[in-house]
Amino acid sequence: MLEEKHVVTCFLEHRGKICLLKRSSQVGTYKGRWAGVSGYLEKGNAPYQQALEEMREETGLNEGDLVLMKAGEPLEAIDEKLGRKWIIHPFRFRVLSPERLRIDREHTELKWIEPEEIGDFETVPRLAETWERVK
Fold it and tell me: What is the pTM of this model?
């Protein structure tokens, strides 16, 4: 029986490029892999609320720094090794002032890439498919 966990994944976009963040050794899963801004959906929070909270915590960006471009349909990612079924709630935000973006301890670096380059990176499960839901 797989444990089901709901998470949000947010893609930041600026001038046609998207931001990938490399997960640090201080996160619980997928250390060293590339991802969007992500986090567990906390009890009582709607996915959009959680997305904004993760943005504040992980990038220092607030609602006024962002424009919601699209909220995608959730998708599943099965990780047999972890015994987990992730339910991913995807979002795409346009960043108005990318120079304000600051990463926290959960990440070691960030890169602005062309969306079609996602497949060139070792990512968290189903990141390319997650992007497809919000492009």
Answer: 0.95
